[in-house]
# Entry
Amino acid sequence: MPLFDRFVRGLSRGFWKKTSTLAAIAIGAGCVASASAADKVRHDGDRVVRVTVADEAQLDTLLKLTDDVWSHHVDADSSIDVRMTPVQFANLEVSGLPYTVLIEDLQAQLDEEDARLASRGVEQGLANPFDDYLRWEQVNTYLNTLVALRPDLASIVVVGTSLQGRPMTAIRISSPGTGPGGSAKPAIFYHGGIHAREWITVPTVLWAADRLVRDYDTNAEIRALVDRCEFFLLPVMNPDGYIHSWDVERLWRKNRRPNGDGSIGVDLNRNFGFGWGGDGASSVPNDLTYRGPAPFSEPETQAIRNFIMARPNIVAYNDVHSYSQLLLWPWGYTDVLPPDQAEFDFIGTQMIDLIRAQSGRNYTPGPINTTIYPASGGSIDWAYGAEGIIAFSYELRDTGEFGFVLPPDQILPTAQEIFPTFLRHAELRSAPVRITFPNGLPSLAAPGVATQFDVRISNIADTLNAASPRLFARNGPGLPLNEYTLTSLGGDLYRAALPARGCGAPTEFYVTAAGNTGATAGAPLNAPSGFFTLPVGEEIETFRDNFETNLGWTVSNDPSLTSGAWVRGDPVGTTSGGPAQPEDDNPAGTGTQCYVTGQGTPGGAAGAQDVDGGSTRLTSPVFDLTGITDARLSYYRWVASNGTDTLNVAVSANGTNWVTVETVPNNRAWNFVELRVADYLPGATSVRVRFTMTDDAPASLAEAAIDDVAVSSVQCTSSSPIGDMNCDGFITVGDIAGFVLAITDPAAYAVQYPTCNALLADVNNDGFVTVGDIGGFVALLTGG
Ligand code: 0X9
Ligand code: ZN
# Structure
């Protein structure tokens, strides 16, 4: 059994039965409107420690030493972040378990936060609402501010009432009107603050509301979504707990239910009624993951349930948590994959890619149960399992440096990296239909022949109007768009055909399809303002290296590197929570060899020959690009890491200044990458590429492999088809004027069509442009 599996099983069996002192500490501290630091629970001497556990026994040892688990890690070296009192920490040292201290003095961090927040006036907070965390009352005031700003778009909706009687205040954002045909608009529901101490979730949800309201007039994507959807954003789902975490115990997690045995609080994310009472939830009231006495025993979870059940139009849901940088989906209660695993993966992959594009941060995607640990009675299991909603749950920043006490300078960056993913989730679940390309899109159009590709159109919020699928295309910027119907291939498959054309500017195209109620979807998603482009020509390869022989690559290493330098050879596979070094070179290429970071030893440990102690760099020979237009560089790469180590790919025109192309996290698969050199090095007449694998955390797994590097370009040598007198790639009535001019006044033709050739009018191919070509031209025009 792989280490991580054991780890998860250990958690489900042992850990959640442990008791917590946390709840007990806070007993008797009533709800107060505000409190001085003196009234607060203190954590003097407490540390937050990351402990590496090698097996179940070690995990059990650790869990006897602590009662406040902060986070779990997905990497191969199973590690767990825990808060420890000085006594617990002393016991940890005695236990011999390897650890690193993440937060040396937790109370100092809390004191710093307290002092900062105390010095910040209420008014100041509302003027700069994302500069620092907001109290619950301030969050609600700010929602009212947004409503006042755009009463035409926004209104307050109270989702329910907390145990202590507080409104669960959400903002509804939608432009006036209904969905197509008078239907309800598809609705999107996000909330933060289910776990009180996870403060960063609150501004992240509030920021989404802020952008939807403030950017409606200026951002076409936002406007289209606010027109099409109904958004419900609830920043604080657990107001009683959130206020308690401000005033009494910063590290409070649950709601504020008196459990009757002196302990307080139900974990609201174990109280939902789907798989309730299963793995990863506690029946012990004092525990941090106490599930409550019955499913939906708590007013807060009842409110969410009733709100969602009253709105069958809700198509997207996210329960926002922190921390660990994850994007989770069902199930939590079982390790079986959800029926819609492919859909979760399709949307989830786009979401984490958007985060990486925005901030460079890596979020790990996957089902809750197998990605972190079993957790039953969770919100998204219920939303998906009972209501069929494609429901996600983020774990926001960070990965443990600050944990729950995330500094305020990370509020805006976190909110900003999440917002595009929120839009994408909404877009993909509220679209009437979805257009995808099951075999991919063509990478070029060969001149003179039609370019075909397959299109899949799936029903999402509506059913497809079978007469609606269209391809729109033009032979270059600024030309009029031509419209083509798609051919049905049966089922949800269609074929699109770009007609034959000659050389020239790249073809621009997009595909559209409509639902039966009239709403239209496009591919790309931002069509028609966005479109795909397709160069015309043949692919010419100027360089290819499958690494079977040495074509002049160089390796250079940090002096501190102790192992794992790039080496060429037939890789020896190693495993560590999945394949670490691949067993084979790129299966899509030829030969058996590739470059790897340190050759594994047969049967050897994964950690033995990975990158340790610094960086190793693999640099290509110089590729001459003179005479090559629009060069493309492609390669296959493999990265295995524990999530912090990455492969950097950079290109350079001169070998001195390097431009990063991508920073690749753990993927453990051979992935193809192709890029346009001009996108990174405009005007470069030569290029080299460099692959740098870095180990920046000691004792962490870092492996990379590279194969099948190629430089190619698309060159068009053939001219426009005979008869295409305006060189637009088509023979249409638009060519008649040019044809007449070519016969009557070739000089005038050359002036008017400077990039065309009058010989295109030599339809009878006798070498002359004369009236003798008229018959053939008419035949071409009329399809003869
Ligand atoms: O344990 C949890 O509830 C979540 N982790 S946290 O550290 N934020 O408490 C993970 C479970 C996520 N599950 C659902 N949102 N349903
Ligand atoms: Zn949480």
Q: What stands out?
A: The mean pLDDT is 90. The two ends are 69 Å apart (CA to CA). DSSP finds 19 helices and 34 strands in the chain. The first helix runs from residue 3 to 13.
